[in-house]
Fold these 2 entries.
Entry 1:
Amino acid sequence: MPPGRRLHEYAGFLMGSDKNVNARPETRIAALSAQVEQLKLAEQRLLAGRQELSVLHELAHRVGRRLVLAEMVESSLAAIESLLEPDLVLLFLRRDDDLVLQDRRGRVANADGFHVHKVGECLCGLAVREARPMYSADIHSDPRCTWTECREAGFASFAALPLTGRDGVIGVLGLASRTPRDFSERAAFLEALAGEVAIGLQNAVLYRQLQEQKQELERQCCERRRLEEEIAGIADRMQSNLGRELHDGLMQRLAGVVYLNDVLESRTADGDAISVSDIQEVSVLLRALLDQVESLARGLYPVELEEHGLLRALDTLACTMRRLYGVDVTFDSGSCFEFADSFAMLHVYRIAQEAASNAIRHGKARRIDIHLTCDESHCTLTVADDGCGFDPAGVTRGMGLTSIEYRARALGGAIDIAARPGKGAQLTCRFPRTPTEPREGGDS
């Protein structure tokens, strides 16, 4: 083949294809120019893609190094600001129906209006509610843009990118531009960027939750140790009180019975007659001993709980307090069911006993009403009195209140105290019908 022919075919190849070999030179030049433009566009897209991948890599690197929420947010916005150079970057974290601003980057004269958004309002709220990005090239004419703060700050375009975590949308990233800009042209890149921020945000939120749980566990451990020490102290005092009761009361009366028995034995040995009054005197001492032993037994453990159940035991408690203290104490159970769990019965009984005793000792109450009601899922114990009352905020947390709170937690419930100086007080303990917390021991 002649060299001229080969050069001609090669030029045709460069012009597009051998089909255009015979085309006019102007046509071949135009085709070549079009191919060159396409190659330039492809190169630009490739370069832009490499830049975007570099941005995503850098952002992931910065975000991945931060676990503290505030540091992660600050690092993310700083990276976005330096890599993309938007006029404004906002990051909101969702709290129920509110979007609370965590941080922002950009020059805004007055940022007060950006602090809180509502889910469903404006582009950021819509992005969270619908869990998809919202783009607006002109926020001044876009009816979805209901907030005026961005327009008043001089922004023209906006992009709201939802940050989706494990359990749904956890926040939103906002990008604003003062010059008209169609953010949707880079939707794939911006949404990938939001995905990286969401991963970091989710990790930071989980880390914060773990830290809070750790602190709560540490607090519970400290509280448990404190309660164990207090319970040990209560047990020591109970043993001391029991020893004094046995020595000063029971043993003295037993000594009296022994003395009378010795006297009667001596008189019988001497042939003297024993009168009915002598026997009655011994009977009186024995009955007093029996009453004292029964009282000590009730203090250690209310026998009625095992024999007759909680409702009967609380009714007996009210009767005993009326007799001992001269206070009008009533108990009403309504249609409450009888408890089958001795663990729960004992804690409920002790809460009522301690609350009523406090009302008498500290509140100088003349009337105390104990109520126990139950519904399908919970039980509610209330102890109300007409005593002198107090200010709950200034009350000193003594052993009695600490014991009540401990027992309420053991039942899986909580207490609430309503009181006013001169207006009496009411303690309410609400707990599940079946205790949900691990049993933390029995009586103390």
Entry 2:
Amino acid sequence: MYDDIPFDKETNCLLLEDAGLTGLYLMDLAALKELAKLIGREEDLPLLDERMSCVRCGL
């Protein structure tokens, strides 16, 4: 699946956006947000919200 995708040696990243992996990352962020609420880390919520927003816009 990824055989013909160019690789950027400067950033060490494939030049591809994988919708499946991006969706999993969004789910991770949502879980982290719930955990932050449970343990009283409300100061982390704006950062998680910002990351979720940026990823959703790119999806």
